[in-house]
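Please, is this right?
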Amino acid sequence: MTIAIIIPARYGSTRFEGKPLALINGKAMIDHTVDIAKAAAEKFKGARVIVATDDARIETHCLNQGHEVLMTSDSCKTGSDRVFEAAIKITPQPDIVINLQGDAPLTPIIAVEKVIHEFSVNPDVQVVTPVQKLTWDDLDRLRRNKQTTPFTGTTAVMNKHGRALWFSKTVLPAIRKEDKYRHGGELSPVHQHLGLYGYRFDILKKFMNLSEGTYEAMEGLEQLRFLENDIPIQTVQIPHSEIVHSGVDSPEDIPRAEAIIKNRS
């Protein structure tokens, strides 16, 4: 099983231009993300870590840092488009492609490892993505955030085998008689989705040839295109002991990211 962890990195951003090269504790964001990918890749023989970008400044930086990098077109609409464009340039083409966003320097290494591991123990899976149960405090915080920014945070519901039933920017499931559940322990029944994906190469290729789905467009969630076309998504659970943080979306997020990374050191 050949594996490529591809990190899409775009320089242009309305909210945060040049984000992949922004410094976090004196180190470029893209370098932090590459380090996460390389740490996970060490456990899987022959796994490659590749940055995919459309910008010469990011390419030059990566080459100077010794990262493998591939140039992609500037017409890629999404990270998945960029990942696929890079994947078809790799020789030999990988069996498994991992999409780790370049602006995700706070991703737990275990999340990448568990996604890859699922392919090795379950050869039937086509797409894998991680989820984590929220504590009641985290759920309350997510609900408060959604009062001002309703499209922040994605939740997921799964069947008893961990196969995704749906993803939504709405908090799923709705919880009737919530007080009864709150007395059941620290963890709520709500799972938050982590924006990290693993695909079989043939499934990623199929995905790229599918039209945007109805609910995908409404929710702004690419993964719904798989479900709308009967392509199953297997989830893996990230233990609650591993604190998951959101990505870096704006310059104002840098101090928060710096503090988190310092605490992990």
About this structure: The CA atoms of residues 133 and 190 lie 6 Å apart. The mean pLDDT is 92.
